[in-house]
Structure formats: structure tokens, C-alpha cells
Amino acid sequence: MLKVTNLEKKFIRVNAKKQKEEFFADKNISFTADKGQIIGILGPNGAGKTTLLRMIAGILEPTKGTIEFDGMTYKNNEIEIKKNIAYLSGNTKIYNSLSAYELLSMCANFYQVEKNEIDKRIKEISKVLEMNSFLYNRIEKLSTGQTQRVNIARCLIHNPSYYILDEATSGLDIISSQIILDFIKEEKKKGKTILYSTHYMEEAENICDQVIMINKGKVIKTGTPKEIKKDTNTTNLRDAFFSLIGSEKHEK
After folding, report:
1. Contact 118, 108 (CB under 8 A)
2. Which residues, in sequence order, are bridge partners of residue 244?
3. Residue 3 near residue 32, CB atoms below 8 Å
4. How far apart, in whole angstroms, are the C-alpha atoms of residue 218 and residue 216?
5. With the C-alpha atoms ordered 103, 128, 210, 84, is the resulting torsion angle positive or negative?
6. Which terminal residue of the chain, N or C, has fewer Cβ atoms less than 10 Å from its own Cβ?
7. pTM
8. Closest to 29 (Cα-Cα) out of 11, 58, 9
9. 148-177 confidence digits (pLDDT tens)
10. What is the β-pairing status of strands 162-166 and 193-198?
């Protein structure tokens, strides 16, 4: 189980008067995610989703709060935790000069996958993500959707227990998006815990067990999609979000 408690991240910025000021990208965020759950982290660009996921992935250190994976913390078990998580950011760059197969082989070696298992593992993943037609092509020759599938594949190579996916389908065509969403559903069936950040409310409504809505770094609503729609008297999560933020949507 993943347990996030009172998580906060404070940064320093320069305001319009060229003065330094503190601001919170995320403030007092708490939730749990069990095995076999897809947790949607929803909100507009700049809401604090990426900062939150980077803290959970161990890339950023929180200003305050705790993160536990099966009772382990980064302070005492960083290597063990990172062996069991996969993190995909919205702007992950990969080596264009390699083929998809070569990149996955490199990642498998990094995660110390058994040598005699690497080829088998790559071909299994390639089948799941429908990559067979371009598995041996150089990444620089791939489309945006194909490249993102390679990015997802590198997250799969070490068979992690936790997926942290930040805007996994952003900017993709409908076919690539559906392949990735189907993959997420299948990993859920295997008991994997998946954090899925998106600003596509319709996607979250279709695949998420629980939803955490964030605006300006704060949680404004949590619950199942059905519960949130019921509580806001709306028929979809997009309308629910706007109902919750009210007049804020008109602010510049």
C-alpha cells in the first residue's frame, strides 16, 4: 500500500515586484492507494500534479510530510522502493539513436533483469503494447504515439509493483491512447497500484477507482467518480471540477 500523509512542497519565486516570495506547489495532501487500484490525480495544468508525483517517485524531496510504500520510507529504503516503482513523466526524453529493442535491453540491464529473461520480457511487453511493427526501428523514426509506448515499455521491464504515470496519453492519437489505457487496466488486474495524473477528465472517469481533484496545490475533492458526480450534482467529472472551483475558473 502507498500512504501519503500531509505532503507539502514549498518553492521560492520572484514576483512582479522582483521580490522573492515563498509559495506552495502542493499543500497538506494525504491519501492512500491499495494494491489493484487506479488512483486518478486530476487537475488543470499548474495544479501541482507533477510536483506531487515527483515527490512520490523520490525525485523531489518534500518540504513536509511522509511517503510510505508498504511501510518503507525513502529515508531508510530508497533503493528497495525504487526497484519497485516505475515513473513516467510527461516530458521524459529517451535515446533517439537507439532502437526500441536496444533501449529496453539497456533498461533491463540497469534493473538487473536476468540475462536469459531479457529477450523474453521485451517480446512479451512488445506484444502487450503493440510494438512489434517498430520494435527494431530507431526511436528517432517513431511517431509520438509509438515513442510514448516505448516510454511505457521501459517502465514495465522490471515488473514494478507501483506505476506513477504523469500525463501518459497527453498529445497522443486515439489509437495510441487506447492502447495505453488498456494496458493500465490490465496491470490493475495483476494487482498493481497505479497513480494516473491527467487533465483529461473523461479518461479518469473511465479507468479510475478513486479520484483526487487538485487545484492550486490543494485537494478540493476525493472519492470515486460516481461519488464525486453525486456530491456535485453533475453528470461528468469535468462539470464536477468546475462546480467545485466555482468562480475561480473566471480568474486570470
Report:
1. yes
2. none
3. yes
4. 6
5. negative
6. C
7. 0.87
8. 9
9. 889 889 888 998 999 999 988 887 788 888
10. parallel
